[in-house]
C-alpha cells in the first residue's frame, strides 16, 4: 500500500500543541486515514447505532465501544510519549576514579 502523503518537518514553538485529528467518516478513514482515525470513525458509527440497538446486542456494543476507546487512548498516549523525547533527567557527577 503506497501513501500519497508528503511529510513536512519543521521545528515547533515551545508550548505548541499538536492539532487534533480530524473526524473522518469510516469510508474516508479507510481510504486515507491512519489506524487511529479508522478506530475513531468506527467508534462514531457504533455510538450512532446505540439508540436502535436492543438486548444482548446493546451490551455487546457497549463493550466494543469501551474496548475501542481504550485502544484509541493507548495509541494516542503512545504517540504523545514518543513525541516528548524522553524524561528530563539531570546528568550525575562524573568520577574518573570509578573507571
Please characterize this protein's 3D structure.
With 99 residues, the chain is mainly α. Helix content is 52%, strand content 0%. It has a domain at 26-83. The protein contains 3 helices and no strands. Helix 2 runs antiparallel to helix 3 (56-84). The mean pLDDT is 86.
Can you describe this structure in just a few lines?
This protein is mainly α and 99 residues long. It is 52% helix and 0% strand. It has 3 helices and no strands.
Main sheet specs: none
The arrangement of helices and strands along the chain is HHH
Helix content: 40-55%
Strand percent estimate: under 5%
Name the average pLDDT. Answer: 86
In terms of structural class, how would the helical and strand content be classed?
Answer: mainly alpha
Number of helices: 3
Uncertain runs are none
Instruction: Quote the distance from N terminus to C terminus.
Output: 51 Å
- The number of distinct β-strands equals 0
The shape, in one word, is: elongated
How many whole angstroms does the radius of gyration measure?
Answer: 21 Å
